[in-house]
Amino acid sequence: MTDVRLAELARCLPELRLLVAPGDLEHYGRDWTRRWTPAPLAIALPSTIEEVQAIVRWANEKSVAIVPSGGRTGLSGGAVAAKGELVLSLERMNRVLDFNAVDRTLSVQAGITLQAVHEVARGYELAYPVDFAARGSCSIGGNIATNAGGIRVIRYGNTREWVAGLKVVAGNGELLDLNRGLIKNSSGYDFRQLMIGSEGTLGIVVEATLKLTDPPLPSQVMLLALPDMEALMQVFELFRARLSLQAFEFFTDKALAHVVEHGAQRAIDGDYPYYVVTEFDAVDEQAQQGALVAFEQALEQGWVCDGVIAQSEAQSAALWRLREGITESLAPWRPYKNDVSVRVSAVPAFLQDMQALLAREYPQIEVVWFGHIGDGNLHINVLRPDEQSEEGFIAQCEHVTRLLSDTLRRHGGSISAEHGIGLVKRAYLEGTRSAAEILLMRGVRQVFDPNRILNPGKLFADI
Ligand code: FAD
Ligand code: MLT
Ligand code: ZN
């Protein structure tokens, strides 16, 4: 080990796994954005909380920045290490620690995958309801650090709702045991909630106590084809009033073309501009009949052009693949991603402005959008044309994002609904948060991480 700082870390922590091979630096130094060239100092894979604390103390002493790292499925550059940082991967801290049947909580180490949590909860005949397509690789620590949302927010809310307690190593190496699984705790500031969504800039989540809930009721999955966004919002209102929705997700014909090209099966013949995958409780025949009546009403109104209801689990999975497979199908383009939200009631007016903006600013560029429309959350994916340079493309997208940020400000929305700010959106934070708020955020950061060793440059530029 040639770096003297690393050599000292290895001496202090002889059991610590440290990686410095170029392939490892590349693998652990980037996330799903793949925009920045990975250049970490090394990768540390601790297996205990004590090791995490010792690494943080060492980093303070040696002024080495740390990038907390989960599954690196992040879409905002939050887990990118491109400036000689030490990547602290929680990958080896992936155990289930405790299940409490009375409290209906599951305590886990932060590096466990979301899917593993789902499976363990299912084994206890309960459910952890946060869910999205990266479930097999993203970590609970990363979900907490980004306050991840996903496809069931309309029913269950974001990650924030499902964290009963956290153990966190703060920027000074101190271990904090936050909220300890309490349901009621009115004893001052809730640091657990402050940690959720802090993108690794306040502390390293090492353990989490997650709330579990009843398994979802038997459900049905329906795919709808729609003529325009106005109709889509009408259908949303109708379905929300008539059915008990578990999910209401939309995508465009362009998204469909990509996902089908990638191997998914088209379920509706004909070409339509918009599609919705919705899942709703269907406990008995009456509930199923209610869904059909709502569908027929939408058809009569001209809000829906066609639709199918899955008749088996395999068909449900195939319909879901049309929505969930989009991100992976677009990955070869390394799309420039916007992840925006407005209140659901503001969606129609925002959409009008947003569609006009995108049509004006990207006349020759393919823009694919989809997302969690029932939560007011749209994902805009901009694909670089072959003939355009990467630099020119990013500059153009950044210009449009600034305009989008102004549009969002007018509609009271957010530049980051669920993916986090990271590196990608830090220049637009002030469009969503006031100067007073950002000053307070920086102050909080200073308290938890006085030497700014935790993920510097993410969320906001470090000054
Ligand atoms: P990473 O990418 O490793 O890190 C993300 C951020 O968290 C970084 O800032 C990192 O420093 C920090 N961090 C990681 N672990 C810790 C820790 N233990 N302590 C402190 N900070 C930490 N996101 C959604 O919200 N909804 C979706 O529907 C959704 N769908 C996706 C689908 C696909 C196919 C993909 C690839 C991504 C999707 N994402 C989605 C984005 C991503 O999966 C989430 O942001 C996820 O929460 C990131 O988890 P991770 O473990 O991969 O975190
Ligand atoms: C999704 O909703 O599929 C995710 O947030 C991923 C993405 O935006 O690409
Ligand atoms: Zn999403």
Structure description:
- The structure is a single chain.
- The protein has helices spanning 4-12, 22-28, 49-62, 114-123, 140-146, 153-156, 191-195, 229-242, 253-261, 285-301, 313-324, 326-330, 347-361, 390-411, 429-432, 435-448; strands at residues 17-19, 42-45, 66-69, 86-89, 96-100, 105-109, 163-170, 175-178, 203-211, 219-226, 245-252, 274-281, 306-309, 336-341, 366-372, 377-383.
- The mean pLDDT is 97.
- The two termini are 31 Å apart.
- It is an alpha+beta fold and 463 residues long.
- The radius of gyration is 23 Å and the shape is globular.
- The chain folds into 4 domains: 4-89, Uridine Diphospho-n-acetylenolpyruvylglucosamine Reductase, domain 2; 96-211, Uridine Diphospho-n-acetylenolpyruvylglucosamine Reductase, domain 3, CATH 3.30.465.10; 219-327, Alpha-Beta Plaits (2-Layer Sandwich); 334-444, Alpha-Beta Plaits (2-Layer Sandwich).
- The site of zinc ion has 4 residues, from strand 15.
In short:
With 463 residues, the chain is an alpha+beta fold. The chain has helices at residues 4-12, 22-28, 49-62, 114-123, 140-146, 153-156, 191-195, 229-242, 253-261, 285-301, 313-324, 326-330, 347-361, 390-411, 429-432, 435-448, and strands at residues 17-19, 42-45, 66-69, 86-89, 96-100, 105-109, 163-170, 175-178, 203-211, 219-226, 245-252, 274-281, 306-309, 336-341, 366-372, 377-383.
